[in-house]
Design brief:
By secondary structure, the protein is mainly α. The chain has one helix at residues 16-97. The protein is rod-shaped, with a radius of gyration of 43 Å.
Length: 98
């Protein structure tokens, strides 16, 4: 009634088939690593440019600050001179009235 009982007939899966997948996986990983390194390099270049721009802006702002300080001193001197001139004018006006 039943045929001979040898058990199921399965074929073995060759291990070499997985090696080709492993190679393609390694290739993919290597490509991703190279891509990440290229992105890091671009980011580093961008950060370097940003750093240089920030440095230039810092130097420019210091220059502007020094210029404003100098102009404020000049305005203070001019104000002092105008106060002296106004006092002199008041003195002369009083002398002319008397």
């Amino acid at each position: 009634m039943f045929s001979s009982n040898k058990g199921p007939n399965y074929s073995k899966i060759p291990i070499n088939d997985y090696d080709s997948d492993s190679d393609s996986d390694d290739d993919f990983i290597q490509k991703e690593i190279k891509s990440q390194r290229a992105q890091f390099k671009k980011q580093d270049e961008g950060l370097e440019m940003l750093s240089m721009s920030a440095d230039r802006l810092g130097k420019l702002s210091l220059g502007i600050s020094e210029e404003l300080d100098q102009q404020n001193r000049m305005l203070d001197n001019m104000e002092d001179d105008l106060d002296k001139a106004a006092d002199n004018l008041d003195f002369v006006t009083l002398q002319l009235e008397n």
